[in-house]
Amino acid sequence: MTTAPSQAAELHRRSVVADTHNDLLCAVTARPVDQWAAFFREQWLPQLLAGGVNVQVLPVFIDDTYRPEGALRQTLRMIEAAHRIAAGNADAVRLCRDGAEVDAALDDGRIALVLALESAPGVAEDVELLETLYRLGVRIASLAHFGRTPLADGSGEDAAGSRLTRAGVAALAEMERIGMMFDISHLGAAGVDHVLELASRPVIATHSSARALRDHHRNLTDDQVKATAANGGVVCVNFFAPFLHESDYTLDRLVDHIEHLADVAGLDHVGLGPDFVQEVMADTTPPCCAHPVIEGVRTDQFLPGLEGPAGLPLVTEGLLRRGWADGDVAGVLGGNVLRLFRDGLGQPAS
């Protein structure tokens, strides 16, 4: 099936586009403090606008060099960077704390920014700090990256078969109480299952693809995808090429993952979590080790045209070429995430 570029461009333009994982705060905080807002405006805002991004989740990811002693300090620096980005670019973006604020930003023609914690090393077992970070605007959190934390094991530790620790169970309960959404991406397989057993509120996988198509521990099994959908959550597809296929790094392989997740979870439970890391890694990785191998894959492999946010209209084109209906495409682009945020973001338990 052929699709006119103008048809795809028009659909993309009038759809809400939500990116649930962009590590741009890492690049911003690598600059001097007085450049944070301007660097975002010059380097990232044009890309987000070119890609039609309306909702941008900003994860707070703490590099190993800050762990453990400096993790909380760097967490606070990155949160401060998000606030300075919003204050210095108030005509274009708004830092949002709930679904109503997201809608208000969209109505104003601004990009809604949502703060998230990736792995939460600054919290560790001090679960009470989640409420502190909530007060600072954080609305989504995960409990692990690739390795082990006091709360849970990351997917790189799958051989241990570990569920959430006692502190991890307490963290999940606290997040549900205060209205912070739980992110299952990067969590070990047994931990994902544990969360889905315990969770009483919808969860999100901010950047995970389908393990049935690419057997890598960073991806979710069909059973986990089904359980996330049954929980009311959304699985947002990771664009990182080695997590999609062993060698065929093309848009078609990304669309394969989107279609598979939609078949397994249902069309209302799939979104986009691109994890655009090429520019971030170039900005933050010393030349000595610019292309390391992490978790068995090289980190310099990307989908052509989808190295950054400006390429997002290609996803709309790819889905339309597969015969998707306009409304279903719009749901995957951001409608499903927007519904999730409207229903649960920043909403304390009643």
From TrEMBL:
InterPro entries registered for this protein in UniProt: Metal_Hydrolase, Pept_M19
Gene3D superfamilies: Metal-dependent hydrolases
Signal peptide (residue range): none
Superkingdom of this protein's organism: Bacteria
Protein name per Swiss-Prot or TrEMBL: Dipeptidase
Provenance organism: Streptomyces durmitorensis
